[in-house]
Design a protein that fits this description.
By secondary structure, this protein is α/β, with parallel strands linked by helices. The protein contains 14 helices and ten strands. Strands 1-6-5-4-2-3 form a six-stranded mixed beta sheet, with helices on both faces. It has a four-stranded parallel beta sheet with strand order 8-7-9-10, sandwiched between helices. It is globular and about 60 Å long.
Length: 331
C-alpha cells in the first residue's frame, strides 16, 4: 500500500482515458453517487464546486435514486472504481429509468458497460488497485466533470498538486513529512483515533483519515466537526478520564483558513480537555491550489495509516470482512 501512497502525485498528473468526444454540458444541479473509496472523490468535487460555483451538489452514498430527487432532474455522476458496486449500479438503473442526464467514472465493470451501451460520457481510470489506493486517479477523474467552462483549470490544479506532492516526498531518507507521519502513528499506536476538522476541507480529510485508518490499519477511528463538537461531544471526555487517556488519541487537522472563532475553539479545547486525552495537531499548508491543500493532509493521513498497520503487523490489503459481507448479501 505504501507504494500507492507515495505515487499519489503521479496519479494526479496522469492523463485519463475518456469517452469519444467527451463533453460535459452545463448544469446547475448535480447528484453524485458513490461508496467508500469511490464516494470520497464525489466529496472532493462537492467541496470544490461549493467553493467556486453556485451549483447545487448532493453526494449520495446509498442505494438508488429517491423519486423526489429524480423529480429535480439533476445531472448524475456515478462513481465506482470496480464498476460493480451494487448500490451505485442500482442508482444508474434508476437514472436510465427516469431518463436523467448521467455520466460514469470507473475502471470497468457494469458501469462502464452501461455508459458505452447508452453512449454516455465516461472517464476510465487505471484498474488493478483497491479503490482507496486510487484516490489520486479518482480525484483527477471527477474534476473532468467540473463546470464545463473551467474544467481545464481544475485539471491543471491536479497537475500542479501532483508536482507539489512529488517534491514534498523527495529525499525520503531525510523527509520531514514522512517523519511527521511516523511520529503521529506512534502517538496513536493501538489507540482509537478521534479526528476533528474545522473547515469543509479539513473535515473532508478527517473522514479520509478515518477510513484509511479503518481499512489499512484495521483500527477504530471517528471524526468530529468543529464547532459542532462543542455542543455535545466535548462532554464525552468528562467520564472515565483514565480510560480516555489510555485508549484514545485526539487529532486536530488545522488550517490557516479557519474562521478565527474556530481557531480559538481549538485552543480552548486543549485547555479544557487536554488533561483527559492526548492531542496531536497537524497543520495544513496554505496554498492557493485547493487540490494541493487537500492532498497534503491526505498524504499524511494515508502514511499514518500504513505506518500503524506496519507496527501491528497488519496487512493493509486484507479486506476479508468486506468480501465476506458481499458474499453473504448475494445469498
Amino acid at each position: 500500500m505504501i507504494e500507492h501512497i507515495l505515487d499519489l502525485g503521479n496519479q494526479l498528473k496522469k492523463d485519463l482515458e475518456t469517452s469519444t468526444d467527451f463533453i460535459v454540458d452545463s448544469y446547475s444541479d448535480l447528484l453524485i453517487v458513490g461508496m467508500g473509496g469511490s464516494g470520497v472523490a464525489g466529496d472532493v468535487l462537492k467541496l470544490i464546486l461549493n467553493e467556486t460555483s453556485h451549483i447545487n451538489v448532493e453526494v449520495r452514498k446509498a442505494y438508488g435514486i429517491p423519486e423526489v430527487v429524480a423529480d429535480r432532474r439533476p445531472k448524475c455522476l456515478f462513481i465506482s472504481y470496480s464498476g460493480n458496486t451494487e448500490e451505485t449500479v442500482e442508482a444508474v438503473n434508476d437514472a436510465i429509468k427516469n431518463k436523467l442526464d448521467w455520466s460514469v467514472i470507473s475502471s470497468g465493470g457494469q458501469l462502464l458497460e452501461l455508459a458505452i451501451e447508452h453512449k454516455r460520457p465516461f472517464v476510465k481510470v487505471p484498474s488493478g488497485l483497491q479503490p482507496r489506493a486510487a484516490f489520486g486517479f479518482m480525484t483527477k477523474a471527477v474534476l473532468h466533470f467540473a463546470s464545463p467552462d473551467q474544467d481545464r483549470k481544475y485539471l491543471d490544479m491536479c497537475n500542479e498538486a501532483g508536482d507539489y506532492l512529488n517534491e514534498a516526498l523527495a529525499n525520503q531518507s531525510e523527509n520531514e513529512l514522512l517523519s511527521q507521519a511516523l511520529q503521529i502513528s506512534k502517538e496513536i499506536s493501538t489507540k482509537t483515533s478521534v479526528i476533528y476538522g474545522g473547515t469543509p476541507l479539513t473535515y473532508l480529510v478527517a473522514q479520509r483519515w478515518k477510513t484509511q485508518i479503518n481499512e489499512n490499519a484495521k483500527s477504530k477511528a471517528f471524526v468530529g466537526y468543529m464547532p459542532e463538537v462543542h455542543h455535545n461531544e466535548i462532554l464525552s471526555w468528562e467520564a472515565n478520564k483514565v480510560d480516555s487517556k489510555n485508549n484514545y488519541q485526539l487529532l486536530f487537522l488545522r488550517s490557516s483558513k479557519e474562521n478565527s472563532q474556530i481557531s480559538k475553539r481549538f485552543e480552548l479545547t486543549k485547555e479544557i480537555i487536554g488533561d483527559k486525552v492526548n492531542i496531536s495537531e497537524i497543520e495544513n499548508i496554505s496554498s492557493k491550489n485547493i487540490v494541493s491543500n487537500l492532498f497534503h493532509l491526505t498524504l499524511i493521513g494515508d502514511l499514518v495509516s500504513v505506518y500503524m498497520a506496519d507496527s501491528s503487523n497488519i496487512d493493509p490489503y486484507d479486506i476479508t470482512a468486506i468480501e465476506k459481507l458481499k458474499k453473504l448479501l448475494e445469498r
